[in-house]
Automatic annotation (TrEMBL), chains A, B:
Name under which the protein is recorded: ArgK protein
Domain of life of the source: Bacteria
Pfam family, one: MeaB
SUPFAM superfamilies in the record: P-loop containing nucleoside triphosphate hydrolases
Gene Ontology molecular-function annotations: GTP binding; GTPase activity
Organism: Chlorobium luteolum (strain DSM 273 / BCRC 81028 / 2530)
CDD domains, A to Z: MMAA-like
Family per similarity comment: Belongs to the SIMIBI class G3E GTPase family. ArgK/MeaB subfamily.
Matching InterPro entries: GTPase_ArgK, P-loop_NTPase
One GO CC annotation: cytoplasm
Amino acid sequence: MSRQGSAGTGGPLDAESIARGVIGGNRQMLARAITLVESENPVHAESARRILEQCITEGRHAMRIAVTGSPGAGKSTFIESLGEEIISNGHSLAVLAVDPSSLRSRGSILGDKARMEKLTARKEAFIRPTASSGHLGGGAPKTHETMLLLEAAGYEVIILETVGVGQSEVHADAMTDFVLLLMLPGSGDELQGIKRGIMEIADAVGVTKADGERVELAKATASDFTAALGMLPEKHPGHRRKVLLTSARSGAGIKETWGEITGFFDLLQKSGELELRQLQQRSSLLRDLVEWGLRKAYRSDPAIQQRKAEIEAEVAAGRLSPFEGADLLVEAFRLRR
Amino acid sequence: MSRQGSAGTGGPLDAESIARGVIGGNRQMLARAITLVESENPVHAESARRILEQCITEGRHAMRIAVTGSPGAGKSTFIESLGEEIISNGHSLAVLAVDPSSLRSRGSILGDKARMEKLTARKEAFIRPTASSGHLGGGAPKTHETMLLLEAAGYEVIILETVGVGQSEVHADAMTDFVLLLMLPGSGDELQGIKRGIMEIADAVGVTKADGERVELAKATASDFTAALGMLPEKHPGHRRKVLLTSARSGAGIKETWGEITGFFDLLQKSGELELRQLQQRSSLLRDLVEWGLRKAYRSDPAIQQRKAEIEAEVAAGRLSPFEGADLLVEAFRLRR
């Protein structure tokens, strides 16, 4: 009977039981907890909050790795290969993957090519397609919260897949320990259009699909990126950022990439920087939660929403400028209790 | 002597004179006004506000066009060709371009290939590289404010170049009338990874570099995108969204793209939707200004910043969770006067 309970969350289990399940490594409970965290329903938000409070006290930390790049850069096949390598080294792995179904939910647009099929079948891996992971803008803390759940569940490595250039990467950098930027052979031209930000936050660059006829082009691209990295200051003192040639098809460069990542973590651990970084991640979560909280308080206050409607009408009628209107609304929000 | 005045803004001219200059079509005054709008200096912010208040009362509107796509999709060469076409049709044009210098400011990384060289030389065009235009996340209203200045200066067409997939496009959609998505030949594969959002907000798709050997591939890509658009609901009732084959090199498809855009504006004007959309843009600016204002009020309040430091220390020490800390800070902000 309880299976018929609150849709998508799998029944009326209390937050404490779910939290215990997560911490005990129960995958169903973990999935349920993530659904609650991602939910927009205020009742779910309250449960999610209680689960998160319990999970965070466990104080577990994973190696958090962001894998970023343009659509088509081969992120998901690369993650599948790297994931196999990680598991074969004896680690458990969680992947927060960009959800391709968002494009297909009203019917299949480009077929149903499953993503990370092999990895999904492995019991050591937990793959979660997430609508939010591709779009980290706006300070939404949900991705960060989901990572806390994965850590509490005991996953040793977390891979966060993100799309695009821009705010997403800055957020990914703030909530992970290592940022791997994936680029296609021939994408050296794009350096022109790439905002400096993305090169500054990358801890390594992987040139993907470096196989068959593309090997030479991939090498030239790697040189371009190596030169570009050489002109930027170091991100972590003492760590020279590498450009790796990789191929999910031939397997080339996958072991080397994992070696590069583990070497980086060793370095950070020895210098004490890893612990510092984890503290910074917590501060960054706090900042995101405050921004989110301010926005939520603003939007959920009926008196403010009433005033907002009035001011919008004044602005539309040209009796107030948007600048005057905004001042009035910020003021109104601060004087409410 | 006045030339030596406040650096970057070119001297101590008062806001009223600058506003008059902008409205009178003086390019130097326009450039200075944009610099003030983009400045983080609170003194500049006040001048900028006064200039904007005067400019907005002019009530001028331009055709606002967003051109978006991944790095390397050929946005700047496309905009150069489309810009020539627009000028040859007798219109004045302003372009807010992604600033490539952000990558190069500590020395040339990939040479100094000038962007939009030909267009920059035309007196009918005003090209402004802008650090913010590529990254519209976080509700920053500066790009929108810059467009108000360009409209007050009398530009009939504004092109806003944006990079990436994600939040940037959603913002670009909220502040423009027409969104053109540029894609490379062969990028049909990327449909898999593209969030639905970007396809839903595109009013047309341009397949770039459709010349020479790439023509056949470009045609196949156009079919992929046509099929994808066909599965999504209409963005504007009565407007069938087109996929255009274009080449900045051969000039193919450029006239057609401009024809498509003007046809769209005619349709919107006749139905009254254009006016409605301009009202919505003003509401969206108001929303962005409120978010920005809330964040600014939060960050600039010394008592809150003091409390924030205390709470951050408590969170770092594990005596408060980030969730509890955020609640306390949101509460503290609302109770301050």
